[in-house]
Specification:
Number of helices: 7
Shape: globular
Strand order of the largest sheet: 2-1-3-6-14-15
Radius of gyration: 17 Å
Mean pLDDT: 97
Bound molecules: ribulose-5-phosphate
CATH architecture of the largest domain: 3-Layer(aba) Sandwich
Number of domains: 2
CATH class of the largest domain: Alpha Beta
CATH topology of the largest domain: Rossmann fold
Order of helices and strands: HEHEHHEEEHEEHEEEEHEEEE
Low-confidence stretches: none
Number of strands: 15
Strand content: 15-25%
Largest sheet: 6 strands, mixed
Structural class: alpha/beta
Helix content: 25-40%
């Protein structure tokens, strides 16, 4: 089973956690997209009813609208019964790095409003130590250049996220600096340091949001709990 098939399996498995009448947070990215697809199918077939959803990005909102999934503003349906979303990295303590799809801020807002946050992923996302890849940091445009310089002086090797050759603008109108967590540093300490700096809006470090994870492997879907 390749990574694409594993994402589909994880998305399908997550549907088993959804029941009629629930309020849901819909994540962003290629794995979350598979969940939104099977959710839309289940609603269309009448297997689920009275589901109310809110989205973590305009991208997911477009997909959900096309599938006639009932959408609401977060405040209308919070607290959510369940949020389902992918992740870029997952460690054994269910701490996550998210945001390589650019939706980290809305994702964290929505997922902190959920009674249960289910992470869905293929097994390539499980890591021994967070920080294998970049840690996305969402910053205000006004602070972008000074934060870039500051992160550089801190040894974090910031890189401005681009899209079509232009700085990527998030759904909340911010920019993203992708930083590297030095091998010698603990990610929680790095995040704590940069969160002190005005202009840093949010980071893709999700220390405690996830309740459990469904990890698709070639041998089936494995469940990770806290
Ligand atoms: C978007 C995210 C995604 O959930 C994360 O990047 C995983 O994406 P994918 O399922 O495509 O690998 O955090 O901001």
């Amino acid at each position: 089973m390749d990574a694409v098939q594993q994402k589909i399996e994880a998305g399908r498995e997550a549907l088993r956690f959804v029941f009629s009448g629930m309020s849901l947070g819909l994540g962003t990215g290629s794995t979350a997209k598979e969940f939104v697809t099977v959710l839309g199918d289940a609603l269309k077939r009448g297997e689920l009813r009275d589901i109310r959803c809110t989205c973590t990005s305009t991208q997911t909102e477009e997909q959900a609208r096309a599938l006639n999934i009932p959408l609401f503003a977060l405040a209308e349906i919070a607290p959510l019964d369940l949020a389902v979303d992918g992740a870029d990295e997952i460690d054994a303590q269910l701490r996550l790095i998210k945001g390589r799809g650019g939706a980290l801020l809305r994702e964290k807002i929505v997922e902190q409003q959920a009674k249960r946050f289910l992470v869905i992923a293929d097994e390539s996302k499980v890591v021994a130590r967070l920080g294998v890849g970049v840690l996305p940091v969402e910053v205000t445009p006004f602070a972008l250049d000074v934060l870039h310089a500051r992160f550089t002086s801190m040894g974090l090797n910031p890189v401005l996220r681009l899209r079509d050759g232009q700085p990527r603008t998030t759904d909340e109108g911010h920019r993203i600096l992708d930083i590297r967590v030095p091998d010698v540093s603990d990610i929680a300490d790095v995040v704590n340091d940069i969160r002190q700096l005005a202009g840093v809006v949010e980071t893709g470090f999700f220390p405690s949001e996830a309740s459990e994870a469904l990890i698709a492997t070639p041998n089936g879907v494995r469940r990770m709990t806290r």
